[in-house]
Design brief:
single chain; two-stranded parallel sheet; 9 strands; globular
Length: about 300
């Protein structure tokens, strides 16, 4: 989405984290590793949750995607400690022969397998190996505002604005009022929890809240503002299982200048980044994506 093309498949630990890395990690984290295998979250909590709660060890789980999970009960570890352990594992993997996209820290609540429930998720992604749209804009002196957990995905060493969906929209409206020149990426990540929980009612209710907040944002847009609404993956709350689903994600674009509705057709994630750069005459800075800015101009009146 931000102009970074993936040219090689990342690694997947189908048999758990390699033993040498898992052992060294346990020594550095000074916590025992209680599990280390390909498990979904609910199975990991069901099989090992009570042992984790009793011992304070860490559950290691891998996924069929390029991810490793560190799981612990909220009463056995602080957020700061879990994040530190995630960073230890992230650094170890970065210094290994393996390319793993995400290290995820997960806190869960409850006191027995029937009510163990994932509470908070912390992501430690692989740092971008080459410049992104964000880097290009910063280099040219444009403002970059990140709301949510986006900072960590771009390898930026500064604090992001973190909150729930409601707080994200409050921050976004405040930034629009300040009339900055550049890009703001606002994440409304709470939709994922309803999708993973296969909770259609919660998903629909939150979607209606987002629609309501988007109306407020659109009312605040200046004449030269462009709002792009999209998602990074599908998560159909009516689909069996708990993994991400693979339907197309929406691409909705608006500006006060747009006086008529048009269809942009099917687009790639990379086209979004290309459009942002094109808006600032920086379209030649990255090799991926096709800008749809001119298609939007055709709808101006």
């Amino acid at each position: 989405m931000m102009g970074l093309a993936t040219t090689a498949e990342p690694d997947v630990f189908f048999d758990g984290v390699p033993l040498e890395i898992a052992t060294n990690f346990a020594n550095k984290a000074m916590r025992p590793v209680l599990s280390n295998s390909l498990l979904n979250i609910q199975t990991a909590l069901k099989d090992y949750g009570l042992e984790q709660l009793a011992t304070g060890g860490l559950l290691l789980a891998t996924a069929s995607s390029s991810s490793v999970w560190l799981i612990a009960h909220e009463h056995t570890i602080s957020v700061a400690e879990l994040k530190e352990d995630c960073q230890i594992l992230r650094t170890m993997l970065d210094n290994s022969p393996y390319t793993i996209e995400n290290v995820n820290g997960l806190l869960f609540s409850g006191n027995r397998p029937t009510n163990f429930y994932p509470q908070e998720l912390y992501k430690f992604p692989l740092a971008p190996p080459s410049p992104t749209v964000i880097d290009c804009l910063l280099k040219e002196g444009y403002a970059v505002k990140l709301i949510g957990k986006s900072t960590q995905f771009f390898g930026l060493a500064r604090k992001e604005i973190i909150g729930n969906n409601k707080e994200s929209f409050v921050q976004l409206q405040e930034l629009i009022d300040k009339k900055f020149t550049g890009v703001c990426i606002a994440e409304v990540g709470e939709m994922e929890q309803f999708g993973k929980a296969r909770n259609p009612e919660g998903f629909g209710t939150e979607l209606m809240r987002i629609d309501h907040e988007l109306t407020k944002v659109i009312d605040k847009l200046q004449d030269d503002d462009l709002l792009i609404v999209t998602g990074n993956f599908g998560n159909d709350p009516t689909y069996p299982g708990e993994k991400h689903t693979r339907e197309y994600v929406p691409l909705l674009v608006t500006s006060p200048h747009l006086k008529q509705n048009i269809s942009l057709g099917g687009k790639s994630f990379s086209d979004i980044g290309a459009t942002i750069l094109d808006n600032y005459d920086l379209g030649d800075k990255l090799p991926v994506g096709n800008s749809f800015l001119r298609e939007l101009f055709s709808a101006y009146q």
